[in-house]
Write a structure and sequence with these properties.
Helix content is 64%, strand content 3%. The protein is mainly alpha-helical. The chain is globular and about 70 Å long. The two termini are 23 Å apart. The relative contact order is 0.12. It is a multi-pass membrane protein.
């Protein structure tokens, strides 16, 4: 171990961004410049530790005793570095995308949005570098607090309802984590992470050990969206699309599966998990979630909700690998953390670009939209292939390891689950890609894969037709923004400034002004779906601002790079070191 301030500096770089963002609230360009600088600084600090971590160095920041018997220590080990590197890099990409998205929709409360985003990433990096369950719990709860304003950003009743549900579920999960942590401390006298697990747990009372394991995995499983505690995630899609990317790819749900990873690998260890017989039940819950969520995704007509149920399914690939315990399965599960992140962020970025440019949210309205948004839908197609586990995209590599690991563990049934899930992924992604490029609004079949009453519209073409998700169409935009927001007494103090929600000539001087030239003129009477004369054909690069297209292509390129050269992307090398340390099997 090497004493270093870099783990703490990485957490503080994002946290200090909050102060800078709020301080520059009246100057949007400066505010967003601070966002990018904070993201770059955080990533640079994390990346600077990667060579040393690969060589076996563990960077430690010791801040002394936190509570009796527990020290507040941040530690950059291989597993934490995987999560921190992923979160900090994708924050850079999402920051640029957020500028295009928030300005493209002239969203209100942009200062609060960017500040909360910085706070969320700071908490995620803290989770990554936590050296014990108590420190992890503190940052885990801080992440919930930081993301709540993002979930409720629209400030509509629907958003507030989703926010209350989010708090109820995630704070409830936090209570379970704290209870499990207390049992671990009572049984062993420590909560510090150790590669291969806490040795004393092997001799602890099996009933207590199993109870603690159930509490910890259930608590972290809330943010990991394991069934039956998953329903907060689809409801949270009322948030702006970059927030959905944060929830699904960058921080929140990944913190859940990361917590389960720490429990399996560094609290119990694979051998103790096997001896207690708790790995197989965990794998069974994951397999159930994989298949059930995939079937539920089939009946969603709203694009973001379909992506949400896809996330519920895909996250359980990670948990499945952790439950199977074989070295190959562990590598596949952990590798699916970055693999899923790049693919799902691409998909949500595409959904957001479609919303900003065409105000379209329902899949049944997207026939022929590839003419209007060729780059966006091409990136969507690439990420969809990866989600289904096809070669040359990151999802193939992680799922290949999972397949081999299932067979190595002696559970062929889970290999069948993985193959069936891949077919279901094709079933709910291919129709989107097909109708975007190979159909027109006139010849499109609006029915989803599963028809009513399980999905689809009851009356095709009717403005009041029932949606497949069983409710009214959801949009990212929320309530209309206007001058009345400035008089809203419920608005946060930092957001009672024109730069957050009202455009004027002064703001145009700072670059906050009209987006018509960047995005192309919109028909003010067009509120979703193809215009009456069909989708306009746009040339490559002309479909949206490059603040949005740049991040979309970057995320898609990352998914391809991880699929073609996983070692060059560093993540696989770090993960092999994690698994070797936990199992003793060298790669």
């Amino acid at each position: 171990m090497t004493d270093s301030l870099r783990p703490m500096a990485a957490v503080l770089a994002a946290a200090l961004g909050i102060v800078a963002i709020v301080a520059s609230r009246r100057r949007p360009n400066v505010r967003e410049g601070f966002t990018v600088v904070s993201a770059l600084s955080t990533f640079a600090l994390v990346a600077s530790m990667v060579p040393g971590v690969l060589d076996g160095t563990v960077y430690v920041t010791d801040l002394g005793t936190f509570v009796p018997g527990v020290e507040f220590v941040l530690r950059a080990d291989p597993l934490g570095t995987v999560f921190a590197l992923l979160a900090s890099f994708l924050w850079i990409v999402t920051s640029f995308y957020s500028v295009g998205y928030m300005r493209g929709l002239d969203e209100h409360a942009q200062t609060r949005y960017f500040a909360a985003f910085a706070g969320s990433v700071s908490a995620a990096v803290g989770i990554a570098f936590a050296s014990n369950l108590i420190v992890l719990y503190v940052f885990y709860e801080l992440l919930t607090v930081a993301t709540y304003p993002l979930v409720t950003h629209d400030q509509t009743e629907e958003a507030r309802r989703a926010g209350r549900k989010y708090l109820l579920y995630t704070f409830g999960g936090g209570v379970a984590v704290l209870a499990g942590t207390a049992l671990i401390f009572w049984s062993t006298g420590t909560v510090n992470f150790a590669s291969g697990g806490i040795a004393a747990l092997a001799n602890a009372d099996p009933v207590v050990a199993r109870t603690a394991f159930a509490l910890l995995t259930a608590g972290f499983g809330v943010k990991a969206a394991l069934m039956p505690v998953h329903s907060w995630l689809p409801d949270a899609m009322v948030a702006p699309t970059p927030v959905s990317g944060l929830l699904h790819a960058v921080a929140v749900v990944k913190s859940g599966v990361f917590g389960i990873s720490r429990v399996v690998l560094d609290v119990y260890g694979p051998q103790t998990v096997s001896d207690l017989g708790v790995g197989l039940p965990l794998a069974a819950v994951a397999a159930f979630t994989i298949l059930t969520a995939s079937i539920m995704a089939l009946r969603q007509d709203n694009l973001k909700r379909r992506l949400a149920y896809s996330t519920v399914s895909q996250l359980s690939y990670i948990v499945l690998g952790l439950g199977l315990l074989s070295p190959a399965a562990l590598v596949g599960g952990l590798l699916h953390i970055p693999a899923h992140a790049f693919m799902k962020l691409t998909l949500f970025f595409c959904a957001g670009a479609i919303h900003v440019e065409t105000h379209t949210d329902d899949i049944s309205d997207m026939a022929g939209i590839g003419r209007r948004m060729p780059v966006t839908m091409a990136a969507f197609a690439v990420a969809s292939l990866g989600m289904a586990g096809l070669p040359l995209v990151s999802g193939f590599v992680s799922k290949w390891y999972l397949l081999i690991g299932s067979i190595d563990a002696g559970y062929v049934v889970f290999a069948f689950v993985l193959l069936l899930s891949g077919l279901l992924n094709i079933a709910y992604f291919w129709p989107i890609v097909y109708q975007a490029f190979f159909q027109t609004p006139d010849d499109a079949d609006a029915k989803p894969v599963i028809e009513s009453p399980f999905g689809g519209r009851s009356r095709v073409g009717s403005p009041s037709a029932a949606k497949a998700d069983g409710g009214k169409p959801r949009s990212d935009g929320g309530k209309s923004k206007g001058a009345e927001d400035a008089d809203d007494e419920t608005a946060y103090a930092v957001d009672r400034y024109p730069s957050d929600h009202v455009r004027d000539d002064a703001e145009e001087a700072h670059g906050q002004g009209a987006t018509e030239e960047a995005h192309g003129a919109h028909d003010d009477d067009h509120h979703g779906g193809p215009p009456s004369d069909g989708w306009e054909r746009r040339a490559l690069g002309k479909e949206s601002t490059w603040f949005m297209l740049g991040p979309i292509t970057t995320a898609a390129a990352g998914a391809i790079a991880l699929g073609i050269a996983p070692y060059a992307m560093v993540f696989l090398a770090l993960i092999e070191r994690v698994v070797a340390g936990a199992t003793g099997v060298a790669f």
